[in-house]
Automatic annotation (TrEMBL):
Gene Ontology molecular functions: transmembrane transporter activity
Keyword Glycosyltransferase: no
Protein name, per record: ABC transporter permease
Keyword list, A-Z: Cell membrane, Membrane, Transmembrane, Transmembrane helix
Any one GO cellular component localisation term in the record: plasma membrane
Ranges annotated as spanning the membrane: 34-54, 119-137, 172-193, 202-221, 253-271, 301-321, 382-402
UniProt cross-references to InterPro entries, sorted A to Z: ABC_transp_permease (IPR001851)
Compartments in which it is found: Cell membrane
Length: 420
């Protein structure tokens, strides 16, 4: 009598682990944050090229006989756009001719590193104001008051810069601390009102922007603050002991960019490694649930706006102690409002905000050379910045245009899809 014995089922082969290169190639054309960001910049450059051609009457006139000789219009368009973007690159990063002149001893190293110096100079205050907006976003607040907080940072740091007479080093630290305190106080007000009365931070911070600007305009005309040798609205000169150390002229980059990198690392640690960062993210994700878990939503809102205001105040301090040496009505420029766009471009991530600020600084520095060399208006560079933000803010459109796959959730795909 024979007994049928069932054969054991074949052992399942364990799936082979995919290597890094395989995962990278599979994710290269997926809808992760990095790919969408780069494609958004590419789309903005394409649309910008069209605007450059349309805005040039000489090139546009050649399209009148496009069907007869298309090479004239296409060749002129290519020459114009390539020259414009070449100037954008040379003005933002480096000019090969300047490096060649430096190596041949016919030029200086300051000329060779001038473009990157301008990029970092423009980017420095935007890192701080961008972090102020990004941090508030992560906590569920819309800090549109970065401009006013930066202005107050300029005021406090500037007054400390010429009113105090302290040894070098100590004077700089005191001036930076005063700038931080000025921005923190201006951030405390909307945070406190939000926590205690429920007043929307957008409304209160917008009003405080106007208040800070008007206060600055009034202050620089007062005796003891206004430059006694001038009749216009300008303050005394900040002491050299309070100025941020900078590279030799004509380079303008200063120690503020190093401080910006250190602060970015600090904000990243605060968000991801500290208990306050955990409370901040919990409150931003679901305030009722955070309150049920025993977290004080009102306290978190207040502290969040204080920290965000302090960051923006540091941006104002870096502006007045590093780039400018006096208080004027326009000393802060638009660094607070530009910081809002930088935070959006950086996906509200600390390191993403840093890179976005450098990109904005590069566009600004390169745009200056485009304007001088080719005659392209600086407003066109502003349009380019806006286009980048628009495309990044509409990832579904970018995905549809380039037919991107959904981002994979495994290892490399997951890490890439989380952003910067």
């Amino acid at each position: 009598m024979t007994t049928d014995v069932e054969a054991p089922p074949p052992a399942k082969e364990s799936p082979k682990e995919e290597g890094f290169l395989t995962l990278f190639l599979k994710n290269l054309w997926s809808a992760n944050t990095v790919t969408v960001t780069f494609l958004s910049i590419f789309l903005a450059l394409v649309v910008g090229a069209i605007l450059i051609v349309v805005s040039d009457s000489a090139v546009l006139s050649k399209f009148a006989y496009f069907t007869a000789r298309p090479s004239d219009a296409l060749g002129s368009s290519w020459d114009l756009v390539s020259a414009a973007y070449a100037d954008l690159f040379k003005g933002a990063l480096f000019d090969p001719a300047s490096f060649q002149a430096w190596f041949n001893h016919t030029g200086s190293w300051q000329q060779a590193f001038g473009p990157i110096s301008e990029t970092l100079t423009y980017a420095t205050p935007l890192v701080f104001t961008g972090l102020a907006v990004a941090l508030a976003f992560r906590g569920g607040l819309f800090n549109i008051g970065g401009q006013g907080q930066a202005v107050m940072g300029c005021v406090f740091a500037g007054v400390a810069g010429f009113a105090f007479h302290l040894p070098p080093g100590l004077h700089l630290i005191v001036a930076l601390l005063f700038g931080l305190i000025g921005g923190a106080l201006w951030g405390f007000l909307p945070g406190f009102l939000k926590a205690r009365t429920g007043a929307h931070e957008v409304i209160t911070s917008i009003m405080l922007n106007y208040t800070a600007t008007l206060f600055l305009g009034w202050l620089i005309l007062q005796k003891g603050v206004q430059d006694p040798t001038r009749s216009d609205a300008i303050s005394k000169t900040i002491d050299s002991s309070a100025a941020l150390p900078a590279l030799p002229e004509p380079l303008r980059v200063h120690l503020g960019i190093v401080l910006a990198v250190v602060v970015t690392a600090g904000v990243a640690w605060l968000l991801n490694r500290s208990s306050f960062g955990f409370e901040l993210r919990a409150v931003g994700a679901n305030p009722p649930a955070a309150k049920t878990a025993g977290m004080s939503v009102a306290r978190t809102y207040t502290l969040l706006m204080v920290v965000a205001g302090g960051l923006a105040g540091l941006g104002g301090a870096a502006q007045v102690l590093g780039t400018a040496d006096k208080l004027t009505a326009q000393v802060a420029g638009n660094i607070g409002f530009d910081g809002l766009l930088v935070a959006l471009l950086g996906r509200n991530k600390p390191w993403g905000t840093l890179f976005a600020a450098i990109l904005y600084g590069a566009l600004r520095a390169g745009g200056n050379l485009m304007q001088v060399d080719i005659g392209i208006s600086l407003e066109l560079v502003t349009v380019l910045q806006a286009l980048i933000v628009i495309f990044i803010a509409a990832p579904a459109m970018v995905k549809a245009i380039f037919q991107l796959r959904a981002a994979r959730s495994a290892r490399l795909g997951a890490s890439m899809s989380k952003g910067w």
